[in-house]
Amino acid sequence: MKRGDPLARRTRLRSKTRTRIAGHTDTAEIKERIQALLRAIVIARDCGCILRDVRHCNGLPGIPGVVLQADRLITRANSATYADTRLVVCVCRPCHAWKSCGSNRQKAQYDALARTLLPPDRVALWDRCEQESWCPHRTFMSDWRLAEVVLKQEVATLGSVVTRSP
């Protein structure tokens, strides 16, 4: 095969619907569930896109056509902060695309905006975690299971707060 030729794929791509395939671990399944829980938590906590007043994106939940996403302030590669809800914010699809356009070309501007909108304690945590992000942190299956249980409890408490509010 020459350099620059397209890759000749000999195996089919794995779909998410198939279960227990080689290379698909229990950890990956727990991480997917953690992602879903994080998204539910930040949408309920932030009540829509955090940049809606700054960028006028109309990123509120319940509006047809609005897709809300959980955006991490620290990369998912850092397992120490993977399930920390304080380091995740809710943004709409256009705001997330604006940040991510051109390989995170506007990330510095996005981070500056987010820093002005977040409480000082979360910004301080964000700075500490960025400084320590180079330090490896080994995470075991029990850690992922514990994180999932904690997030489920947080969803339950947020759900009871949301239903009590009106």
Explain what the structure shows.
By secondary structure, the chain is mostly helical. It has a domain at 49-135. Helices cover 51% and strands 6% of the residues. It has six helices and two strands. The chain has a two-stranded antiparallel ribbon. Helix 1 (26-46) runs parallel beside helix 6 (141-164). The longest helix is centred in the last third of the chain and has 24 residues, at 141-164. It starts with 25 loop residues before the first helix and ends with a helix. 17% of the residues are buried. The mean pLDDT is 82.
Q: How many beta-strand elements?
A: 2
Q: How do the SSEs run, as a string of H and E?
A: HHEEHHHH
For this structure, the quaternary state is: single chain
Low-confidence stretches: none
Total number of helices: 6
* Outline: globular
| Class per helix and strand makeup | mainly alpha
Biggest sheet: strands, sense, closure?
2 strands, antiparallel
Give me the side-by-side strand order of the main sheet. Answer: 1-2
Residues in helix, %: 40-55%
pLDDT averaged residue by residue:
82
